[in-house]
Structure prediction request, 652 residues.
Amino acid sequence: MCGIVGFVQQKNVADNFPLEVCLHGLKRLEYRGYDSAGVALAGSAGFATDAQLENTIAIPGFKTQVRKKAGRLDNLEEEIRQHPTLPASVAIAHTRWATHGKPNDINAHPHVSNDNRIALIHNGIIENANSLRDELESEGINFSSSTDTEVAAHLLRRELGRIEAESAAEAKYTCDLTEAMRRIAVLFSGTFTLLAIDALNPEVVVGARHDSPLVVGVGDGMNFLGSDVAAFIEYTNQAIALGQDQIVTITPESIDIIDFDGVPQIGEKFEVNWDAALASKGGYRTFMEKEIREEPRAIADTLLGRIDPSTKRLKLDEMNVDEETFAQNMRKIDKIIIVACGTASYAGFVTKYAIEHWCRIPVEVELAHEFRYRDPIVNAKSLVISISQSGETMDTIMAVRHAKEQGAQTISICNSQGAALPRESDATLYTHAGPEVAVASTKAFVAQITASYIIGLYLASIRGNMYNDEVQNVLDELDEIPEKVQMLVDQFDSITRLADYYSDVESVLFLGRHVGYPVALEGALKLKELAYIHAEGFAAGELKHGPIALIQEDLPVFVILPPLDRPELHSKVISNIQEVKARGARVFAIAEEGDTTAIEHADIVFKRPKCPSLLAPLLDVVPLQIFAYALATAKGLDVDQPRNLAKSVTVE
Prediction:
């Protein structure tokens, strides 16, 4: 879940551009972890000449420059102001979400070898770190931190020394950081992305990837590495996605990829279709506010260009298998399983209602981290749909791998080009929502639901469950949704004033039925993530089966009322409102325009523009997101970077 950046340019450049690149990259990646941050640099001023390198195995005093600090990135920047670095040609940087060791200065990355020659950063968890640490300590290696990452730094230095010793007999200096990285990568179990630099070879960054994200940025006279394209999007939109168990070596003029066996590989090139401006706040107070206000565009962009002009059929973004064969397999599907975590799982829950209605196929929604451990019934007639904003959620990736091992067909819904999940799935539908920087997901949620509807209509079309004109009617209704979402976004200020009034509230409940139920769950999650208060979402029909015991005087209860086209559900939820009102609760209802019954019974009503019930979640969630945002802001909390959370969960 950590953010990593690597950069290399030609050495002996007078400025400190590598430090600038790394700090800018960390600012764009801080959402991935903000327990600590650090940078290591090497090269240029005061370092050895090429002639020295050719004949010298070790140069006394030849060290990497490391600056690191616990806390937010501001702390690191202040540390650098107080202790400036020399110009450099190569750099790596890291923003941490702690897994091993407390978030303090000592455990912050980069970690260095005992002689300060090697600096290394790491994303993931090395599960056998303790046994490797014992081995190194028995060899006299001293550790300064309690992290698994420092184990990798010392192992890398040991292997580099062994390579140099092997070449010493030939009286020829060999500095092969790539081979040293390959040797240690095969020793680890767990998940990892590793980046390392060597002060004796200050024109090289080496990275290794196993079950953790790493992407290459391609520049002119310079190259980049990052856990996300946001790390370098300010400088280039040309990228290369790395595959599983690969090692990449970048210099100012070259990019070389091998696998863990040393076999040369070719990376997958792609162009990032958004620029740095989209990843900035754009004049808004926070990224989260900006991303809520971008929801109409996110939905519209996800819908854009979905009809194949030649076949008049819906199309997916990317196929990793033959399209016609995939379509034939879809006609044989007898069960669908949706795997996701957190907010994405609630988007999947909404998807279940739509796909079962349109396709008449049973749909299960599974938390990805539970899926493969319960021995699920999956076979060649199963379709597994995975949902992940980043495409790097490790639980979801492992669930998809398990499904494929059982012969299942797979489709991923993802917002990030070059991510692991799309590459491992048979087909992908990208949400095209643009970068989402705030840790708590907002626009990704509505984009994922929109993409899920497209997949549902795609399946209904190729399986013959719906005629083309029926599919087109739903698409026409979806095309109207962005404008309707905008109407709710326009209530931002009024909802904010309401949240200010309730800033001292300690508990909030959410009720919904049918597709309103997962929206209630998502509304509660947003309050937990942002405001750190007790919040729970319930299926409204469950109220009398226990949760009603929580109702007390003035307790805020959000109720998602079904649209008026579902009168049988609408009347039952009105009864729920009456039940909680009778016990003193204060009811905030989300209801369709013209719903006079809601106005009669609820204390406050947020008006939803009229739309079909299956599409209502795209509207209903917006006031809940704004309320959570505003309540957290009123409490003086950081809505972009909530405590203990990181944007992408890249470890199991």
